[in-house]
Design a protein that fits this description.
Helices cover 40% and strands 17% of the residues. By secondary structure, the protein is of the alpha/beta class. Helix 2 (79-96) packs parallel to helix 3 and helix 9 packs across helix 14 (364-375).
Length: 412
């Protein structure tokens, strides 16, 4: 089977996020399928950008044929990112005219967070007489409306709404990473028979056989954790982007409440809110918070398992009623460590698996109390919680299984 996967932000282990297209495609290639990933040359979520020499630059990564579409650079949300989006969609249309009888796909997947890529994907699928699949990461335009406060009558929102409705009508199958979206999608005109739920996942082998850390940052984190362990400190960690949505001020406030307890808080990763969080800790004169920069993906399995508890939080948002599928939570589960989940959403994998404690979002006192409760648990009890999470993610979120399930969708 020849598969064309259109994903603006697709990355790889060498380039960085996002990883889902790479891991699925790698498994499809192992099953004797030919996979082409069409992606933009510039993405804000990648740690490293590919080198492009023309409008379309090809690169083979682990048997996957990447086609990098040359797009303008940008740094944050704003007009430059919008131009980047339009440029990628235009390149995808241009790519449709490059199809040959050899390169024609059997399946076309439109999967770029925003749904505008459905238009070139539909054209390519029509020309190639291929099956068309619409993959949904987040619900657009609901995300910019409910999270970004944009008006439903904004021209960009109207355009996105038209694309979303077009996708639900014309796609042969729809794959949602969010579990509670069926009713919404059918309200926008999708036939319920098209719906398929395939969440984000983990590459299980990376967690069964973690590699020794190689980066200086990971080595420094390891040394610092051991330093605190030798003093019998309980460690709580957050690994990921430091943004407003991640509600890390909640974790700082919990650290303030527990300033006289033997507990230390690790903040690991990049993000626009990192410096303000550091400043907040300085203003509060907290000596129990430690900040580190991002670590390479190969080091994550070894580092995530060092801590007593890992934390995930999000701000209270109605949009989360459709469920969440964060890579971070799955990484935490795979590390066999307990999780404190400060997210209010339509689903709760932590409660479902029994791998930790769930507390209300944006409630530092409840968070602090949950940390104290876990501190009073035995090491055996903490290990058991961690094992529950590992068993859950191994069963539900292994990319080998998810890739097989996706192939079954393609064959419907």
């Amino acid at each position: 089977m020849r598969i064309l996967y259109i994903n603006h932000y697709a990355g790889s282990p060498s380039y960085g996020m996002e990883f889902r297209p790479y891991y699925l495609a790698k498994r499809w290639v192992e099953n004797q399928n030919q996979v082409t990933i069409l992606a933009a040359s510039h993405s804000h979520v990648r740690g490293k950008q590919p080198t492009v020499t023309d409008s379309f630059t090809t690169e083979n990564i682990d048997g996957i044929n990447y086609v990098w579409c040359k797009t303008p650079t940008y740094k944050e949300n704003g007009i430059k990112r919008f131009v980047n989006i339009l440029a990628f969609v235009a390149r995808a249309f241009q790519f449709s005219f490059k199809l040959t009888s050899i390169k024609k796909p059997d399946v076309v997947i439109a999967s770029s967070t925003y749904p505008l890529d459905i238009f070139p994907a539909w054209l390519i699928a029509k020309k190639a007489k291929a099956k068309l699949i619409f993959e949904v990461h987040d619900l657009w335009p609901l995300s910019p409306i409910e999270l970004g406060g944009m008006s439903r009558m904004h021209p960009f929102i109207l355009l996105i709404q038209m694309a979303e409705d077009f996708a639900y009508k014309h796609a042969d199958q729809v794959v949602s990473m969010l579990p509670k979206t069926l009713d919404y999608m059918t309200s926008r005109g999708m036939s319920k028979e098209k719906f398929n739920y395939i969440p984000n996942g983990i590459e299980l082998q990376e967690w069964l056989n973690p590699k020794p850390v190689t980066s200086n940052e990971a080595k420094q984190i390891t040394a610092k954790v051991l330093e605190y362990k030798n003093q019998d400190y309980f460690s709580v960690a957050y690994l990921g982007t430091h943004g407003l949505a991640n509600c890390l001020e909640n974790l700082v406030n919990a650290a303030e409440i527990l300033r006289n307890e033997k507990v230390v808080f690790f903040f690991i990763g990049p993000g626009p809110e990192k410096e303000s969080l550091k400043s907040l800790c300085k203003i509060k004169e907290l000596s129990n918070t430690v900040f580190f920069d991002a670590i390479p993906k190969p080091d994550i399995p070894s580092i995530t398992g060092l801590f007593d508890v890992n934390y995930i939080g999000l701000k209270k948002e109605p949009l989360f009623r459709f469920g969440i599928s964060p890579n971070k939570m799955m990484d935490y589960m795979a590390s066999r460590r307990p999780i404190i989940n400060a997210v209010e959403a339509g689903n709760n994998p932590v409660a479902e698996s029994g791998c930790g404690l769930s507390v209300p979002a944006e409630n530092p006192l409840a968070l602090a109390n949950a940390i104290k409760e876990l501190m009073n648990n035995s090491k055996t009890e903490l290990s058991q919680m961690g094992e529950y999470g590992f068993q859950f993610v191994s069963k539900e979120n292994d990319y080998k299984k998810l890739a097989t399930k996706f192939l079954q969708v393609m064959e419907k």
